[in-house]
Amino acid sequence: MPKRPPHPPRLSPKESLVVELLLRDAEMYGLQLVTASRGQLKRGTVYVTLGRMEDKGFITSREEAPPAEAGGLPRRIYRTTPLGRHVYEAWNAAAAHMALGFAR
Amino acid sequence: MTRRPGVRLRALCLHIYSERTMRRLIDPALADLQAEFAEAHWSGSRLRQTWALCAGYVAIAKVLGVAGCGELGDALHGWESAERAAARRGAWVACTAFVGLTVLLGIPIFISLNESWSLTPALYLVPSALPLSLPFGWALGIAWAFHGAGRTRKLAVCALALAFICSAGMFANIAWLLPEANQAFRQHHFARAVARTQPSSRPSTVARGDNELTWKASRQRRVELAAEPYGDYRVRRFDAGYYQKWGFTGATFAIVALVLLLGARRRWTRPGLTGAALCICAAYYALLSFATAAAIGGAIPAHVVGWSPGAACVLAAILLAFSLRPQREPIQLLRAGGPPEEGDDRGSKGAHQRG
Questions:
Q1: Partner of B89 at 20 to 30 A CA spacing, among A25, B218, B277, B340?
Q2: What are the pLDDT digits (tens) for A35-55?
Q3: Are B166 and B134 in contact (CB under 8 A)?
Protein backbone atom coordinates (compact mmCIF):
# COMPACT_ATOMS: atom_id res chain seq x y z
CA MET A 1 0.00 0.00 0.00
CA PRO A 2 1.51 3.37 -0.97
CA LYS A 3 2.46 5.67 1.87
CA ARG A 4 0.18 8.66 2.33
CA PRO A 5 1.88 11.96 1.65
CA PRO A 6 2.44 14.15 4.71
CA HIS A 7 -0.15 16.80 5.48
CA PRO A 8 0.57 20.16 3.87
CA PRO A 9 1.31 22.97 6.34
CA ARG A 10 -1.87 24.61 7.60
CA LEU A 11 -2.43 28.28 8.23
CA SER A 12 -5.31 29.35 10.46
CA PRO A 13 -6.96 32.76 9.85
CA LYS A 14 -5.08 34.25 12.81
CA GLU A 15 -1.78 32.83 11.63
CA SER A 16 -2.48 34.11 8.14
CA LEU A 17 -3.11 37.56 9.56
CA VAL A 18 0.15 37.46 11.53
CA VAL A 19 2.15 36.49 8.43
CA GLU A 20 0.40 39.19 6.42
CA LEU A 21 1.25 41.84 8.98
CA LEU A 22 4.82 40.66 9.26
CA LEU A 23 5.21 40.69 5.48
CA ARG A 24 3.99 44.28 5.46
CA ASP A 25 6.47 45.37 8.15
CA ALA A 26 9.57 43.25 8.28
CA GLU A 27 9.77 42.91 12.07
CA MET A 28 7.20 43.57 14.78
CA TYR A 29 6.66 43.12 18.52
CA GLY A 30 3.65 41.20 19.78
CA LEU A 31 1.97 44.38 20.95
CA GLN A 32 2.59 46.05 17.57
CA LEU A 33 0.90 43.09 15.89
CA VAL A 34 -2.10 43.50 18.19
CA THR A 35 -2.35 47.20 17.35
CA ALA A 36 -1.86 46.65 13.63
CA SER A 37 -4.51 43.90 13.53
CA ARG A 38 -7.18 46.39 14.68
CA GLY A 39 -8.62 44.11 17.30
CA GLN A 40 -8.41 40.84 15.38
CA LEU A 41 -5.50 39.67 17.52
CA LYS A 42 -5.90 39.86 21.30
CA ARG A 43 -3.16 40.88 23.64
CA GLY A 44 -3.75 37.93 25.97
CA THR A 45 -3.49 35.27 23.27
CA VAL A 46 -1.16 36.73 20.64
CA TYR A 47 1.91 35.11 22.17
CA VAL A 48 0.24 31.69 22.15
CA THR A 49 -0.38 32.12 18.40
CA LEU A 50 3.15 33.39 17.85
CA GLY A 51 4.64 30.50 19.87
CA ARG A 52 2.65 27.96 17.85
CA MET A 53 3.75 29.58 14.59
CA GLU A 54 7.35 29.51 15.75
CA ASP A 55 6.99 25.78 16.41
CA LYS A 56 5.67 25.29 12.89
CA GLY A 57 8.57 27.29 11.50
CA PHE A 58 6.44 30.04 9.95
CA ILE A 59 8.06 32.82 11.95
CA THR A 60 11.24 33.35 13.90
CA SER A 61 12.00 35.63 16.80
CA ARG A 62 14.88 37.32 18.53
CA GLU A 63 15.25 39.34 21.67
CA GLU A 64 15.84 43.05 21.46
CA ALA A 65 17.38 44.78 24.44
CA PRO A 66 15.27 47.65 25.74
CA PRO A 67 16.61 51.22 25.63
CA ALA A 68 19.26 51.74 28.31
CA GLU A 69 17.28 54.46 30.07
CA ALA A 70 14.12 52.32 30.16
CA GLY A 71 15.59 49.03 31.35
CA GLY A 72 13.34 46.06 31.93
CA LEU A 73 12.98 42.77 30.14
CA PRO A 74 14.17 42.40 26.55
CA ARG A 75 11.31 42.52 24.07
CA ARG A 76 10.76 39.71 21.60
CA ILE A 77 10.60 40.77 17.97
CA TYR A 78 9.15 38.53 15.27
CA ARG A 79 9.68 38.11 11.53
CA THR A 80 8.48 35.63 8.91
CA THR A 81 10.60 32.81 7.60
CA PRO A 82 10.74 31.85 3.89
CA LEU A 83 8.55 28.82 4.77
CA GLY A 84 5.96 31.11 6.37
CA ARG A 85 5.91 33.32 3.31
CA HIS A 86 5.60 30.35 0.92
CA VAL A 87 2.78 28.78 2.94
CA TYR A 88 0.97 32.11 3.11
CA GLU A 89 1.27 32.61 -0.67
CA ALA A 90 0.25 29.02 -1.42
CA TRP A 91 -2.69 29.27 0.97
CA ASN A 92 -3.86 32.52 -0.62
CA ALA A 93 -3.43 31.12 -4.13
CA ALA A 94 -5.46 28.04 -3.18
CA ALA A 95 -8.17 30.21 -1.60
CA ALA A 96 -8.34 32.42 -4.70
CA HIS A 97 -8.52 29.36 -6.95
CA MET A 98 -11.35 27.88 -4.91
CA ALA A 99 -13.22 31.18 -4.82
CA LEU A 100 -12.95 31.34 -8.60
CA GLY A 101 -14.22 27.76 -8.90
CA PHE A 102 -17.22 28.45 -6.70
CA ALA A 103 -18.02 31.70 -8.54
CA ARG A 104 -18.58 29.81 -11.85
CA MET B 1 11.90 56.24 37.66
CA THR B 2 9.52 54.17 39.80
CA ARG B 3 9.89 50.42 40.12
CA ARG B 4 9.15 48.44 36.97
CA PRO B 5 5.85 46.60 37.07
CA GLY B 6 5.71 42.83 36.87
CA VAL B 7 9.10 42.18 38.49
CA ARG B 8 7.71 40.31 41.50
CA LEU B 9 5.14 38.54 39.39
CA ARG B 10 7.93 37.26 37.18
CA ALA B 11 9.91 36.10 40.20
CA LEU B 12 6.86 34.15 41.32
CA CYS B 13 6.23 32.75 37.83
CA LEU B 14 9.80 31.45 37.67
CA HIS B 15 8.85 29.02 40.43
CA ILE B 16 5.71 27.85 38.68
CA TYR B 17 6.26 27.83 34.92
CA SER B 18 8.91 26.09 32.82
CA GLU B 19 11.71 28.09 31.24
CA ARG B 20 10.26 27.46 27.78
CA THR B 21 6.87 28.89 28.80
CA MET B 22 8.58 31.84 30.47
CA ARG B 23 10.63 32.61 27.39
CA ARG B 24 7.87 32.18 24.82
CA LEU B 25 4.73 33.43 26.58
CA ILE B 26 5.21 35.19 29.87
CA ASP B 27 8.40 37.20 29.35
CA PRO B 28 7.19 38.83 26.10
CA ALA B 29 3.91 39.80 27.77
CA LEU B 30 5.75 41.22 30.78
CA ALA B 31 8.18 43.07 28.48
CA ASP B 32 5.19 44.65 26.70
CA LEU B 33 3.76 45.74 30.04
CA GLN B 34 7.06 47.28 31.14
CA ALA B 35 7.63 49.01 27.81
CA GLU B 36 4.13 50.43 27.73
CA PHE B 37 4.35 51.55 31.34
CA ALA B 38 7.72 53.22 30.69
CA GLU B 39 6.24 55.15 27.74
CA ALA B 40 3.29 56.21 29.87
CA HIS B 41 5.65 57.25 32.66
CA TRP B 42 7.69 59.47 30.34
CA SER B 43 4.51 61.07 29.01
CA GLY B 44 3.73 62.14 32.59
CA SER B 45 0.08 61.13 32.39
CA ARG B 46 -1.12 59.28 35.50
CA LEU B 47 -4.21 58.13 33.64
CA ARG B 48 -2.10 56.58 30.89
CA GLN B 49 0.10 54.84 33.45
CA THR B 50 -2.92 53.38 35.21
CA TRP B 51 -4.41 52.26 31.91
CA ALA B 52 -1.11 50.66 30.85
CA LEU B 53 -0.97 48.75 34.14
CA CYS B 54 -4.59 47.60 33.99
CA ALA B 55 -4.49 46.52 30.34
CA GLY B 56 -1.09 44.88 30.82
CA TYR B 57 -2.06 42.88 33.90
CA VAL B 58 -5.35 41.75 32.36
CA ALA B 59 -3.42 40.47 29.33
CA ILE B 60 -0.86 38.78 31.57
CA ALA B 61 -3.62 37.12 33.59
CA LYS B 62 -4.93 35.60 30.35
CA VAL B 63 -1.42 34.55 29.33
CA LEU B 64 -0.86 32.92 32.73
CA GLY B 65 -4.13 31.00 32.40
CA VAL B 66 -3.29 29.74 28.92
CA ALA B 67 0.29 28.96 29.97
CA GLY B 68 -1.02 27.05 33.02
CA CYS B 69 -3.17 24.84 30.79
CA GLY B 70 -0.16 24.25 28.55
CA GLU B 71 1.99 23.34 31.55
CA LEU B 72 -0.63 20.87 32.72
CA GLY B 73 -0.75 19.31 29.24
CA ASP B 74 3.05 18.99 29.22
CA ALA B 75 3.05 17.59 32.74
CA LEU B 76 0.81 14.70 31.75
CA HIS B 77 3.31 13.30 29.26
CA GLY B 78 6.81 11.89 29.40
CA TRP B 79 7.02 10.89 33.06
CA GLU B 80 10.30 9.35 34.10
CA SER B 81 10.43 6.19 36.16
CA ALA B 82 11.52 8.08 39.30
CA GLU B 83 8.56 10.44 38.95
CA ARG B 84 6.14 7.55 38.43
CA ALA B 85 7.53 5.78 41.48
CA ALA B 86 7.22 8.94 43.58
CA ALA B 87 3.64 9.48 42.37
CA ARG B 88 2.74 5.87 43.24
CA ARG B 89 4.33 6.26 46.66
CA GLY B 90 2.45 9.51 47.27
CA ALA B 91 -0.86 8.06 46.07
CA TRP B 92 -0.43 5.06 48.34
CA VAL B 93 0.31 7.21 51.39
CA ALA B 94 -2.51 9.63 50.52
CA CYS B 95 -5.05 6.80 50.14
CA THR B 96 -3.94 5.11 53.35
CA ALA B 97 -4.10 8.36 55.33
CA PHE B 98 -7.43 9.27 53.76
CA VAL B 99 -9.08 5.92 54.49
CA GLY B 100 -7.54 5.71 57.96
CA LEU B 101 -8.71 9.16 58.96
CA THR B 102 -12.18 8.59 57.50
CA VAL B 103 -12.53 5.44 59.60
CA LEU B 104 -11.13 7.16 62.69
CA LEU B 105 -13.62 10.00 62.33
CA GLY B 106 -16.52 7.59 61.91
CA ILE B 107 -15.78 5.25 64.82
CA PRO B 108 -16.63 7.72 67.66
CA ILE B 109 -20.02 8.41 66.08
CA PHE B 110 -20.80 4.70 65.88
CA ILE B 111 -19.75 4.21 69.51
CA SER B 112 -21.56 7.26 70.91
CA LEU B 113 -24.81 6.42 69.09
CA ASN B 114 -24.56 2.70 69.84
CA GLU B 115 -25.00 2.11 66.12
CA SER B 116 -24.73 -1.38 64.63
CA TRP B 117 -21.46 -2.10 62.81
CA SER B 118 -22.88 -2.39 59.30
CA LEU B 119 -21.83 -0.98 55.96
CA THR B 120 -24.82 1.23 55.11
CA PRO B 121 -24.61 3.70 58.02
CA ALA B 122 -20.82 3.72 57.64
CA LEU B 123 -21.15 4.81 54.01
CA TYR B 124 -23.54 7.58 55.08
CA LEU B 125 -20.78 9.02 57.27
CA VAL B 126 -18.10 9.11 54.56
CA PRO B 127 -19.18 12.45 52.98
CA SER B 128 -19.04 14.22 56.35
CA ALA B 129 -15.52 12.90 56.99
CA LEU B 130 -14.23 14.00 53.57
CA PRO B 131 -13.73 17.73 54.39
CA LEU B 132 -11.12 16.68 56.95
CA SER B 133 -9.74 13.41 55.67
CA LEU B 134 -9.21 14.43 52.04
CA PRO B 135 -6.97 17.50 52.67
CA PHE B 136 -5.01 15.62 55.36
CA GLY B 137 -4.55 12.61 53.11
CA TRP B 138 -3.51 14.74 50.16
CA ALA B 139 -1.06 16.80 52.20
CA LEU B 140 0.60 13.68 53.60
CA GLY B 141 0.77 12.07 50.16
CA ILE B 142 2.41 15.17 48.68
CA ALA B 143 4.87 15.40 51.56
CA TRP B 144 5.81 11.76 51.00
CA ALA B 145 6.08 11.93 47.20
CA PHE B 146 7.69 15.34 46.82
CA HIS B 147 11.09 14.20 47.90
CA GLY B 148 14.39 13.27 46.28
CA ALA B 149 13.99 12.30 42.63
CA GLY B 150 10.25 12.87 42.87
CA ARG B 151 10.68 16.56 43.59
CA THR B 152 9.89 17.67 40.05
CA ARG B 153 7.78 20.28 38.33
CA LYS B 154 5.61 17.67 36.60
CA LEU B 155 4.63 16.08 39.89
CA ALA B 156 3.93 19.48 41.44
CA VAL B 157 1.74 20.60 38.53
CA CYS B 158 -0.23 17.34 38.51
CA ALA B 159 -0.66 17.39 42.29
CA LEU B 160 -1.90 20.97 42.16
CA ALA B 161 -4.32 20.20 39.33
CA LEU B 162 -5.66 17.16 41.19
CA ALA B 163 -6.02 19.24 44.36
CA PHE B 164 -8.06 21.76 42.38
CA ILE B 165 -10.30 18.97 41.08
CA CYS B 166 -10.64 17.64 44.65
CA SER B 167 -11.67 21.11 45.84
CA ALA B 168 -14.29 21.30 43.09
CA GLY B 169 -15.47 17.82 44.07
CA MET B 170 -15.58 18.92 47.70
CA PHE B 171 -17.91 21.74 46.73
CA ALA B 172 -20.28 19.21 45.15
CA ASN B 173 -19.93 16.98 48.20
CA ILE B 174 -20.72 19.76 50.69
CA ALA B 175 -23.48 21.27 48.58
CA TRP B 176 -25.46 18.15 47.73
CA LEU B 177 -23.99 14.82 48.83
CA LEU B 178 -23.20 15.57 52.47
CA PRO B 179 -26.67 16.96 53.41
CA GLU B 180 -28.39 13.96 51.86
CA ALA B 181 -25.99 11.46 53.45
CA ASN B 182 -26.33 13.12 56.87
CA GLN B 183 -30.09 13.06 56.59
CA ALA B 184 -30.04 9.41 55.50
CA PHE B 185 -27.87 8.53 58.50
CA ARG B 186 -30.21 10.38 60.89
CA GLN B 187 -33.21 8.67 59.37
CA HIS B 188 -31.54 5.27 59.59
CA HIS B 189 -30.57 5.82 63.23
CA PHE B 190 -34.03 7.12 64.14
CA ALA B 191 -35.71 4.14 62.48
CA ARG B 192 -33.51 1.75 64.48
CA ALA B 193 -34.28 3.59 67.71
CA VAL B 194 -38.01 3.46 67.00
CA ALA B 195 -37.80 -0.22 66.12
CA ARG B 196 -36.06 -0.91 69.43
CA THR B 197 -38.50 1.02 71.63
CA GLN B 198 -41.79 0.76 69.75
CA PRO B 199 -41.59 -2.19 67.38
CA SER B 200 -45.19 -1.84 66.22
CA SER B 201 -45.04 1.87 65.17
CA ARG B 202 -43.70 3.22 61.88
CA PRO B 203 -40.89 5.79 62.15
CA SER B 204 -41.78 9.26 60.91
CA THR B 205 -39.50 11.46 58.85
CA VAL B 206 -36.79 13.30 60.79
CA ALA B 207 -36.72 17.07 60.28
CA ARG B 208 -33.54 18.33 58.62
CA GLY B 209 -31.04 20.20 60.76
CA ASP B 210 -28.73 23.01 59.61
CA ASN B 211 -26.11 20.53 58.42
CA GLU B 212 -28.61 18.62 56.34
CA LEU B 213 -29.60 21.54 54.13
CA THR B 214 -28.48 21.99 50.54
CA TRP B 215 -27.31 25.46 49.41
CA LYS B 216 -30.76 26.41 48.19
CA ALA B 217 -32.49 25.17 51.36
CA SER B 218 -29.88 27.01 53.44
CA ARG B 219 -30.84 30.35 51.91
CA GLN B 220 -34.51 29.68 52.62
CA ARG B 221 -33.72 28.63 56.19
CA ARG B 222 -31.76 31.84 56.78
CA VAL B 223 -34.77 33.96 55.81
CA GLU B 224 -36.94 31.98 58.22
CA LEU B 225 -34.41 32.36 61.05
CA ALA B 226 -34.16 36.12 60.58
CA ALA B 227 -37.92 36.44 61.06
CA GLU B 228 -37.91 34.55 64.36
CA PRO B 229 -37.54 36.25 67.78
CA TYR B 230 -33.92 36.41 69.02
CA GLY B 231 -33.04 35.71 65.39
CA ASP B 232 -29.77 37.65 65.42
CA TYR B 233 -27.74 35.07 67.31
CA ARG B 234 -29.25 32.17 65.41
CA VAL B 235 -28.68 33.89 62.08
CA ARG B 236 -25.06 34.56 63.02
CA ARG B 237 -24.61 30.95 64.03
CA PHE B 238 -26.26 29.72 60.88
CA ASP B 239 -24.23 32.09 58.68
CA ALA B 240 -20.98 31.08 60.34
CA GLY B 241 -21.78 27.43 59.66
CA TYR B 242 -22.74 28.22 56.09
CA TYR B 243 -19.50 30.06 55.35
CA GLN B 244 -17.49 27.44 57.17
CA LYS B 245 -18.54 25.05 54.43
CA TRP B 246 -16.87 27.37 51.90
CA GLY B 247 -13.70 27.20 53.98
CA PHE B 248 -13.83 23.39 53.80
CA THR B 249 -14.32 23.58 50.05
CA GLY B 250 -11.06 25.42 49.40
CA ALA B 251 -9.03 23.53 52.00
CA THR B 252 -7.53 20.84 49.75
CA PHE B 253 -6.24 23.27 47.14
CA ALA B 254 -4.92 25.83 49.63
CA ILE B 255 -3.15 23.26 51.81
CA VAL B 256 -1.63 21.30 48.91
CA ALA B 257 -0.43 24.52 47.24
CA LEU B 258 1.27 25.66 50.42
CA VAL B 259 2.88 22.26 51.06
CA LEU B 260 4.18 22.17 47.48
CA LEU B 261 5.58 25.66 47.74
CA LEU B 262 7.23 24.80 51.01
CA GLY B 263 8.72 21.68 49.45
CA ALA B 264 9.90 23.58 46.39
CA ARG B 265 11.68 26.30 48.34
CA ARG B 266 14.17 24.04 50.09
CA ARG B 267 15.16 20.42 50.49
CA TRP B 268 13.35 18.80 53.40
CA THR B 269 13.73 15.43 54.99
CA ARG B 270 10.63 13.34 54.50
CA PRO B 271 9.56 13.50 58.18
CA GLY B 272 10.29 17.23 58.14
CA LEU B 273 7.98 17.96 55.21
CA THR B 274 5.36 15.56 56.58
CA GLY B 275 5.45 17.40 59.89
CA ALA B 276 5.20 20.73 58.11
CA ALA B 277 2.23 19.44 56.08
CA LEU B 278 0.47 18.29 59.25
CA CYS B 279 1.13 21.67 60.87
CA ILE B 280 -0.35 23.47 57.83
CA CYS B 281 -3.47 21.27 57.97
CA ALA B 282 -3.86 21.81 61.70
CA ALA B 283 -3.33 25.56 61.35
CA TYR B 284 -5.89 25.75 58.53
CA TYR B 285 -8.61 24.02 60.54
CA ALA B 286 -7.69 25.86 63.74
CA LEU B 287 -8.04 29.17 61.92
CA LEU B 288 -11.33 28.04 60.39
CA SER B 289 -12.68 27.05 63.81
CA PHE B 290 -11.42 30.26 65.41
CA ALA B 291 -13.00 32.39 62.66
CA THR B 292 -16.28 30.47 63.02
CA ALA B 293 -16.33 31.07 66.77
CA ALA B 294 -15.51 34.74 66.26
CA ALA B 295 -18.30 35.08 63.69
CA ILE B 296 -20.82 33.42 66.01
CA GLY B 297 -19.76 35.86 68.73
CA GLY B 298 -20.27 38.74 66.33
CA ALA B 299 -16.61 39.82 66.36
CA ILE B 300 -16.18 39.41 62.60
CA PRO B 301 -18.61 39.26 59.68
CA ALA B 302 -19.70 35.71 58.86
CA HIS B 303 -18.40 35.77 55.28
CA VAL B 304 -14.85 36.24 56.61
CA VAL B 305 -15.02 32.66 57.93
CA GLY B 306 -15.15 31.26 54.41
CA TRP B 307 -12.11 32.97 52.98
CA SER B 308 -9.89 33.72 55.99
CA PRO B 309 -8.00 30.37 56.08
CA GLY B 310 -7.53 30.43 52.31
CA ALA B 311 -6.35 34.06 52.48
CA ALA B 312 -3.90 33.10 55.24
CA CYS B 313 -2.54 30.33 53.01
CA VAL B 314 -2.17 32.74 50.07
CA LEU B 315 -0.42 35.27 52.32
CA ALA B 316 1.91 32.58 53.66
CA ALA B 317 2.60 31.42 50.08
CA ILE B 318 3.45 34.97 48.97
CA LEU B 319 5.70 35.50 51.98
CA LEU B 320 7.41 32.17 51.29
CA ALA B 321 7.87 32.95 47.62
CA PHE B 322 9.50 36.30 48.26
CA SER B 323 11.19 36.12 51.64
CA LEU B 324 12.90 32.74 51.82
CA ARG B 325 16.34 32.41 50.32
CA PRO B 326 16.34 30.08 47.32
CA GLN B 327 18.50 26.98 47.66
CA ARG B 328 21.96 27.10 46.19
CA GLU B 329 21.96 23.72 44.48
CA PRO B 330 20.19 23.42 41.12
CA ILE B 331 16.51 22.88 41.75
CA GLN B 332 14.95 19.90 40.02
CA LEU B 333 11.70 21.74 39.70
CA LEU B 334 12.99 23.33 36.51
CA ARG B 335 13.25 19.97 34.80
CA ALA B 336 13.18 16.39 35.95
CA GLY B 337 16.28 15.59 33.93
CA GLY B 338 17.08 14.43 30.41
CA PRO B 339 18.23 16.45 27.46
CA PRO B 340 17.11 20.05 27.02
CA GLU B 341 14.25 20.60 24.62
CA GLU B 342 14.82 21.81 21.11
CA GLY B 343 15.11 25.56 21.12
CA ASP B 344 15.38 25.60 24.90
CA ASP B 345 17.99 28.30 25.33
CA ARG B 346 18.80 27.99 29.00
CA GLY B 347 21.87 30.13 28.78
CA SER B 348 20.07 33.12 27.37
CA LYS B 349 20.82 35.90 29.76
CA GLY B 350 18.00 38.12 28.69
CA ALA B 351 15.36 35.43 28.70
CA HIS B 352 16.13 33.99 32.10
CA GLN B 353 17.36 36.94 34.04
CA ARG B 354 15.86 37.09 37.49
CA GLY B 355 13.22 39.70 37.97
A1: B340
A2: 999 889 998 889 999 999 998
A3: yes
